[in-house]
Every structure is written in structure tokens, then in C-alpha cells.
Amino acid sequence: MTAVLLVAAVTAFAVLLPGLARPTLPFGVRITHDRVADPAVIHQKAIYLRLLLVAGLLAAAGVVLIGGGLVWPSVLAAVDFAIYLRAHHAVRRAKRKWGPGKREGVTVDTSFRTDPVRLPWPHLVPAAVVVAATVVAGLVRYGSLPADLVRFTGFGVDPDGTEPVTLARAFEPVLIQLGVVVLVPVVALVVLRARPDLDAARPRGSARRYRVYLRGVATMTFWVAGALTLGLAVSAAQVWHLLPANTGWRVATYVPLAAMVVVLVVWDRRVGSAGHRLPPEPGEEDEESPVVQRDDDDHWYLGGLVYVNRQDPAAFVHARIGHSWTMNLANPVTWLVLGAVLLLLAGALTGVVPERESLF
User: Fold this and answer.
1) 170-198: burial string, b at 16+ Cβ within 10 Å, e else
2) Residue 106 within any structural domain of the chain
3) What is the largest CA-CA distance in the chain?
4) Both 278 and 305 in a single domain?
């Protein structure tokens, strides 16, 4: 049953994925506003959906008739991504046949540097309060802990596993909470200071929308931090035997995150990637500059996930899929970050960094 549900979840995500991008970025390909409803684009979207449904039905049938557990959802995810890439290349081929259009250019709004979007610190208060309450509860409880703790798995707990009490094990959920509260503002700040992805065809409207969008991204990021810390607090209470490690409380660990998923979906429906769903303000309805956004498709790979451009000094850029950012693989900063990640992975493999089954 779990495998069937995962197959359904993978298929649903793949179906929704193109809708997370702006209309001018179908399957990670940049097109102009007048081509959004082009028959070639509409046709590829229809083919994409049909192929996804066929793949999902075949995977579900494989789970039921053959078995194999979680192998089928994993294979389906790879197949769905291949279907996405097929649509990406098909739209690019159609784009080449359209011929030259308006003159290309870029737009720059210096107010993103002179008056940048600020971190919404009040929205981090709930996460900080949860962490503080968890710390206090842990300190009060530590002296009366039993000899064995419920085993912490990185976010939830293993009700059938126990570990001897040590200070590090007892406060591991709290340490992860602190890591979340410290790292999330850093990540949000990097996103806020990344180069804004504006539309040269509609410079004023896209700049205003993008500013609203960034505020929402930062706020949602802080709310996700609150959901994570609340789930970790429930896990900590189970580790410390303050709450029973039964199915109900284990499910409760994930309720805040599930609620945040609903909030994020509603927010996306109202705002959209880079704010493209926001209604225009007076004067923006007919905004149309003499240039269109520069075509930089040749610098994007894997359907708009990977960016490589030696001529671009930016290290972080908005990706072409949904509400995500990626790093310019031609920038030295990217290689420093990747080097640090590789060191952490090497530490995990050698046992220097403690290994957990899963964050969730």
C-alpha cells in the first residue's frame, strides 16, 4: 500500500511541476509572452500529461502484480524526469522554428541593492519560542531521565529502539532545532540577495512582483523553520519519555510540516513563481517594452535545474523550475560550497560526522 501511495504522490508531483514555473518558462525553456499559448507549447503539455499518466498506471500495476516495494516509485521518478526532459527538448526545437523576434535585453532594478527586501524577523519568533521551550523542558527533564532513551532517527523516533543516555543523545533534537534556527535565516538572506530574475519585456511590473515574491519566500521559509522545530520538539518529548512513542504521536511529528505544505500550495496559487500570479497594478496592464528577456537557454541544463555561465558573475540565480534557486557552476563560490559538502559527506562515510537513517 505504501508503494502505491508513493507512486500516486510521485505522479501528482510530476503533473503539478510545470505549473510551478512561470508561463514564459514552460519545461525550463524561455519563451516570450506572445508564445505562451502557442500550439506547439500546448501540444507538448498535453503529451507530457498523457505520458505521465501512462507511466503512473504502469508503475502502479507493477506494484500490484509484480511487487518490488519502493523500487517502482524510484523508477517512476526517474521516468517522469525523463518525460520532463523530453518535453523540454521538444519545446526548444519548436522555439528554433519560430524565427527571430524582438530585440533581446535585460532589466536591472537598483532598488534591490539600495533598498533590499529585509528578513522578516518577527516570523522567526515562533520557531525561536519552540526551541527555547524545548531547551527548558530538556534541562528540567535531564536529571530524571531513565537509563535508556527512545532512539532518535533524525526527525522522528524508532519506538522499538533504545540508546543509553548521554548528554549529546539527549539533546540531539535540540541541537538540530538550533541548527534550523541559525541556518534558515542565512539561507533566506542568500536568496534575498541573489540577483533578481526580472522580465525585460515588463520591467516595472516584474520588479514589483518579484519584490512581493521575495517577501513571501522569506516568510514561508521562516514558517517552515517553525514547523520543523515544532516537529522536532514532539520528537524530543518522545525521546525523553515525556510522550509515548506510539503511532499517534509519531504521526503528530509530521503534522506541522503537512500543514505547511497546504500553506505553501495556497501561497503558490496566489503568488506564483517570481510573483507571476499577482494581479497587475494600474498602469502595468499594458506594459510592454521594446525588448524581450535575453535568451540564455544555452546556459541551462537538465531542464532548467543546472546553470553554467562563465560570463555571469552571479553565484546564486533563480532556477527555472518552481520556487527554487541554483548555483552557477562556473562560479568559484559554487566550487567552494560543493567542496564543503563533499567534506561533510566524506566525514559521514568515515564516521567523523554522526550518521542518521534520515532527516525525516
Assistant:
1) bbbbbebbbebbeebbeebeebbebbbbb
2) no
3) 75
4) no
Contact 190, 142 (CB under 8 A): no
Claim to verify: residue 133 and residue 52 sit in the same structural domain: no
Q: Cβ distance 59 to 277 under 8 Å?
A: no
In a shared domain, residues 269 and 189: yes
Please state the rounded mean pLDDT for residues 228-235. Answer: 95
- What size, in residues, is the chain? 360
Whether pLDDT at 164 is above 80: yes
State pTM to two decimals.
0.89
What is the spatial distance between Cα 176 and Cα 125, in angstroms, rounded to a whole number? 17
Crossing angle between the packed helical segments 71-97 and 2-20, to the nearest 10 degrees: 20
**Residue 133 belongs to what domain range?**
114-294
Q: Is residue 109 part of a domain?
A: no
Q: What φ, ψ does residue 163 adopt, rounded to 5°?
A: -140, 145
Dist. CA 155–CA 251, nearest whole Å: 12
User: Of 101, 128, 163, which marks where a domain is finished?
Assistant: 101
Give pLDDT tens digits for 184-204. Answer: 999 999 999 999 999 998 999
